[in-house]
Inverse folding.
């Protein structure tokens, strides 16, 4: 897994999931079968459905939860990496993007906010 800064509780929860699911390589989030985690990744629609359910359980309004998607998390991860000081190429590698233009669009607002903060 790429090394990026995460808060310690999130990292501990991820490690606990990887141990419980016996995940040592490949997809982190997988289909859950009757006998444990399967070998294939969650379907993109499942990711979105689970995300919306968890958002509602966390207290977000139905409108806020409905606005979320698995893609939101991917874009947010790119923005977090940029805010943490990672360059465009490492972000592309972590997210599996081939186009710098796509990633640049995702992170451009973070760059603008960071530059504005540096000028204060």
């Amino acid at each position: 897994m790429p090394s990026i800064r995460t808060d310690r509780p999130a990292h501990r929860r991820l490690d606990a999931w990887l141990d419980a699911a016996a995940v040592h390589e490949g997809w982190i989030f997988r289909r859950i079968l009757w006998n444990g985690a399967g070998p294939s990744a969650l379907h993109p629609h499942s990711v979105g459905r689970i995300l919306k359910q968890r958002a509602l359980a966390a207290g977000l309004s139905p409108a806020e939860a409905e606005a979320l998607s698995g893609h939101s998390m991917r874009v947010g991860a790119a923005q977090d990496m940029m805010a943490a000081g990672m360059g465009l190429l490492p972000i592309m590698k972590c997210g599996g993007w081939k186009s710098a233009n796509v990633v640049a669009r995702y992170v451009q607002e973070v760059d603008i906010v960071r530059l504005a903060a540096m000028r204060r």
